[in-house]
Write a structure and sequence with these properties.
mainly alpha
Length: 129
């Protein structure tokens, strides 16, 4: 993807619009998650992991010798962006998985928190935007 930040902003805007519709809270959380994926990858990548230059999350996964991209991204976020962003990222990731694979029944408060965390992550990663 040529412009991860722009893609993340687009997903973030959709998340806010869906929240305003007060109906599809599962999609609020899911689009928030995809927003933060783009934001963190935009800021972190390319990077060096265990002496290996990585341009993509797949290369990070290989360098970490991990099975999944999500776990590799989570580890990289914690390592590169710190505990505060990592905790918010993980919360959005967990709620998104829950809404996609367990039940679509997400409470409005959870959707609001996902949007709030997405905004906080964005503002931390792009302080002058």
């Amino acid at each position: 993807m040529a412009n991860k930040k722009a893609h993340g902003i687009r997903n973030q805007q959709l998340s806010v619009e869906l929240l305003g519709g007060k109906k599809y809270y599962d999609w609020v959380v899911t689009t928030a998650f995809y927003s933060v994926i783009h934001f963190v990858e935009d800021v972190i990548l390319p990077c060096k992991v265990s002496g290996v230059n990585c341009k993509s999350i797949n290369e990070v996964r290989t360098a970490y010798k991990m099975k999944g991209r999500h776990a590799a991204r989570e580890r990289l976020v914690a390592q590169e962006l710190g505990v505060t962003i990592a905790a918010k990222y993980k919360w959005i990731d967990d709620r998104s998985r829950y809404s996609r694979y367990t039940t679509y029944k997400i409470r409005p408060e959870e959707a609001e928190k996902a949007v709030q965390y997405t905004t906080e992550i964005y503002n931390t990663l792009y302080p002058k935007s």
